[in-house]
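Customer escalation, tier 2.

The customer says the design service returned an amino acid string that "doesn't look like it belongs to this structure." They asked us to rerun it and document both sides in this ticket. The original structure tokens are below, unchanged.
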């Protein structure tokens, strides 16, 4: 099976370095027209540089097509302008990889709220300005697919975190096969995939079968009494939405009430 991105337009945020750069280069190598977004800051998210431009030059030197965009994912107007830039140049956008990220790694006690807010702004708001996971449900009827990649890669973000002896094993290129499959025409939707050092796995948000308690047993003490059952990891279920979760709870209630 050969997966091509010919005729596709892709935006990769934070593609000036690390994993995003590897995504952008491989997407372009496989025919995609790529918007290389990156404001070119430090690992902690301060400052600016031409990181995106350098990746564009690399792609063009290899015969690919790309444009650079220096916007910050934290600025909604700039994200709208970025999408407009891609549409104006290439007529549409088919693929978005929300990859931009920063690291302000501190222990709980030492973390300033300003750092915490900033990390949330880049990772959560920055992704939401383009998409959220609910889009997988809402977009299904329009063939919009939304997937999550959980990478482990040796980049500037992890250079003092990953042990030195395994650093090369975790080259960012090892994350690329999973990420590109998840943005291809064959992609599933609502999948969460982990990738690093050649290892690939799925991850799920799961729940066990709900234990339903009648009204006169809904006390803290009753909850405590049933904790082993409520926290059991057997018979896991994987609801795709809050609505499915509610249905499973109601089913458990009916089973108790119906005596099944
Ligand atoms: N490396 C890992 O093992 C690992 C593990 C889990 C998650 N991640 C996530 O993967 C993504 C890529 O990480 P990486 O390891 O390649 O790090 P990296 O620092 O090499 O690359 C991140 C890029 O995002 C850019 N960026 C930061 N803030 C931005 C903003 N506001 N707007 C636009 N661009 C911005 C940076 O300039 C940088 O080029 C990040 O979201 C990171 O949190 C990485």
């Amino acid at each position: 099976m050969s997966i091509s991105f010919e005729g596709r337009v892709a935006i990769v945020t934070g593609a000036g370095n690390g994993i995003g750069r590897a995504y952008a280069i491989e997407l372009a190598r496989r025919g995609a027209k790529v918007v290389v977004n990156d404001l070119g800051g430090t690992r902690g998210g301060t400052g600016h540089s031409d990181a995106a431009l350098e990746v564009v030059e690399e792609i063009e030197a290899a015969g690919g097509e790309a444009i650079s965009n220096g916007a910050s994912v934290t600025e909604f107007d700039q994200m709208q302008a970025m999408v407009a830039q891609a549409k104006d140049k290439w007529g549409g956008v088919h693929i978005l990889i929300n990859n931009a990220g920063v690291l302000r790694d501190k222990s709980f006690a030492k973390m300033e709220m300003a750092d915490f807010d900033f990390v949330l702004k880049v990772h959560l708001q920055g992704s939401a300005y383009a998409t959220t996971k609910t889009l997988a449900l809402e977009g299904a009827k329009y063939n919009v697919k939304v997937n999550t990649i959980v990478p482990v890669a040796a980049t500037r973000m992890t250079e003092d975190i990953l042990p030195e002896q395994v650093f090369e094993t975790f080259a960012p290129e090892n994350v690329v096969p999973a990420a590109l499959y998840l943005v291809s025409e064959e992609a599933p939707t609502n999948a969460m995939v982990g990738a690093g050092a050649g290892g690939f796995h799925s991850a799920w948000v799961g729940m066990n079968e709900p234990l339903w308690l009648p009204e006169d047993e809904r006390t803290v003490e009753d909850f405590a009494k049933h904790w082993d059952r409520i926290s059991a990891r057997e018979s896991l279920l994987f609801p795709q939405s809050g609505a499915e979760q509610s249905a499973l709870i109601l089913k458990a209630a009916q089973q108790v009430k119906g005596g099944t």
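Tier 2 assessment: The sequence is consistent with the input. The chain has a mean pLDDT of 94. The pocket of nicotinamide-adenine-dinucleotide is lined by residues 13-14, 16-20, 37-41, 43, 45, 51, 72-74, 99-102, 122, 126, 151-153, 155-158 (CB under 6 Å). Sent an explanation to the customer and offered a walkthrough call.
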